[in-house]
Structure formats: structure tokens, C-alpha cells
């Protein structure tokens, strides 16, 4: 049985839920984040606060939470021409993908995470990628990540297990999973302390958290939260 995991932790709703999921399952969990010149760099400021909250407010998990790793991948932002790495309006490209897609981002993230995991003796990589509620990013697809798991394991001659617990969940179900894992306390932590907004707005508060309220990430988060509350008020 795998006992040690490394969570790709951005400071957003999905990766925070995945961190709770990993801490609920593995004896030792470490985290890794990436500064790639993202427009919403405020998410990196949220990471430390969230990790501190996990250690102080969830003692069973805090005892399992190990070292945090932060890597500088600013070269990715330098070679990208996207709405996540420059001040551009969010729109769709001619190929049908939104211009918030950063080519190669998740592929690079997992490869660098695998290198750290190899050195640290961690067997599982956990990411918050999702096919159900996503913006059409091809590097979030289940097949992409299964293929990546095989190539990393072969290339390092060491088994690397890629876990994506949110892959088939919509945002409503992601909020519900957080409640199942950590109760209302975790839901409130995610609502107020995580960052999702593509615009980097962490000053305007809504019922579902902070954000501009109009970018695709905010719209998904808001819709999911409303559905989550509706489900709680009207259980089947």
C-alpha cells in the first residue's frame, strides 16, 4: 500500500480539497507549488495560510502534513502567450481552446513533481484536474494523465501513481466532498481562504468566496456553491 503522497497544491479550491483527500488517506503528505508567472499569483500567498490552518485546525491531518516545496517555473510564463500569464481579456482561440490554457503546464508540473517525489521517497502524486467541470484543457484529461503516469514511471524506473480524486466530479460535488472530509470547518476554509479567480481578485467577497465574479473560474465556483447549498437545503 502506498503511504506517502505529494500534492500539487496551488492554493485554490480544487487543490485544497485534494490535499484534504490525501491527508485522509496517506500517512505522510507533502505539498508542491509552482510560480510560473501566473496573473493570479495571489494564489501563492494563500498557500501558506491554508497550510497553517490545516496544521492548527485539523490536528489529525496536521500530524501527517510534511514539507512544502515551491519551484520557480517562471520560464513557462515567459514562453507562454495566454490570459493567465499576461494582462489579456479572456477569450477563445481559433483552435477552440480558451486563451487561459497554458500549453504544457500540467505536463511540466507533474514531471517536476515526480522529480521531487523521487528524491523524497514519495510514491503518489495527487492533482486536482477534472474533466467534468473544466475549461477544455487537454492536459486535464484522464487519458493524458494516465499516459503521463506510465511515461514517468518508465522514465524514472520507479512506479509513480497519479491520483486525480476530482476527475469525474462537478463543482457541486467538490464542495460536498470537502464537507465529507472536513465538515463545515473545511468548507469555510475553502470558501474564504482559497483563491480561484483568473483575474487575481482576492478583495471582492461573494457568498462563495473571493473573486471578480465574472471570469470562467469564478462562474464555475459560484454555480457549484449554489448547487451545493441547494442540495443541503433540499436533500434527495
UniProtKB/TrEMBL annotation:
Q: From the UniProt record, give the pathway where this protein acts.
A: Purine metabolism; 7-cyano-7-deazaguanine biosynthesis
Which BP terms from GO are recorded? Answer: tRNA queuosine(34) biosynthetic process
Q: How is the cofactor bound?
A: Binds 1 zinc ion per subunit.
One Pfam family name is QueC
Report the cofactors: Zn(2+)
Source organism, top-level taxon: Bacteria
Q: What is this protein called?
A: 7-cyano-7-deazaguanine synthase
